[in-house]
Amino acid sequence: MGSTAFYAGSFDPVTVGHIDIVRRAASLFDVVVVGVGVNPSKRGWFSPEQRVELFQSALHDAGLHAKFVVFSGLAVTAAADAGATVLLRGLRGPGDIDMELRNAAGNRDLAEFETLWLAADPRWSFVSSSLVKEIASCSGDVSRYVPAAALRAIEAHLQTPGSG
Ligand code: ADP
Questions:
Q1: Span from the CA of 18 to the centroid of ligand 1 (angstroms)
Q2: Residue 18 known to be catalytic
Q3: Are the beta carbons of 50 and 40 closer than 8 angstroms?
Q4: Report field, pTM of the whole predicted structure over 0.90
Q5: Ligand 1 pocket, 36 CB below 6 A?
Q6: If I label 139, which of 17, 131, 132, 153 is the partner at 20 to 30 A Cα–Cα?
Q7: Is 133 a catalytic residue?
Q8: Is the peptide bond before 13 cis (omega within 30 degrees of 0)?
Q9: Nearest C-alpha to atom 4 of ligand 1 is from which residue?
Q10: Taking a C-beta distance cutoff of 8 angstroms, is the pair 16, 142 a contact?
Q11: For ligand 1, what atom is nearest to the CA of residue 11?
Q12: What tens digit of pLDDT does each residue of 6-29 get?
C-alpha cells in the first residue's frame, strides 16, 4: 500500500506557502490528500468548495496533483476515511509549535495518528491566509503571496458589497 498524507487546514484562501508544502510532500508521499476543514463558527471569505477550487487550480498551474476532501469535525477521522496514515502540517515559526505539539499529542492519543511537519520555506514563513486578507483589505499588493486564481477571487470578494 502506498503512503498517503492528509494535509488539513482552512486554506481561506490558498497561499504560496500551502503550495510549497504540497510540492515538497509530493516527493515524500505517494498521495497527498488536502483536507479543507469547515469550522461552523468561523465564516471565511470563501466557501469550502471555492477553497478547493482555488487550491486545485493553483496545483494544476504548478504541475502538481493532490486529492481533496471537505470535512468538518476531527481531522483524524477525515484522514482515516481518506486512507491516510500520516497528518501533515507546515510549521511557520515558534508561534505554531505550541498548538501543533498539543494537536499532535491529541491525535496520537485519540487515533494513534502520527503528525509530520515540514518547516516553512523561509521566503514564505510569514505568509498566512489571514495576513493576506488583512493586507488585501487595506488595498495592499498580495500578488506575490497567492496563486493567480486566488488573487482574482480576493479581488472579486473585495468588490462584493458588505465584504471585508
Ligand atoms: P489552519 O487554520 O489549520 O492553521 P491554514 O490554512 O492557516 O489552516 O494552514 C494549514 C496548514 O498549512 C498549517 O499546517 C499551517 O501551518 C500551514 N501553513 C500555512 N501557511 C504556511 C506557509 N506560509 N508555509 C508553510 N506552511 C504553511
A1: 6
A2: yes
A3: no
A4: yes
A5: no
A6: 17
A7: no
A8: yes
A9: 9
A10: no
A11: 6
A12: 999 999 999 999 999 999 999 999
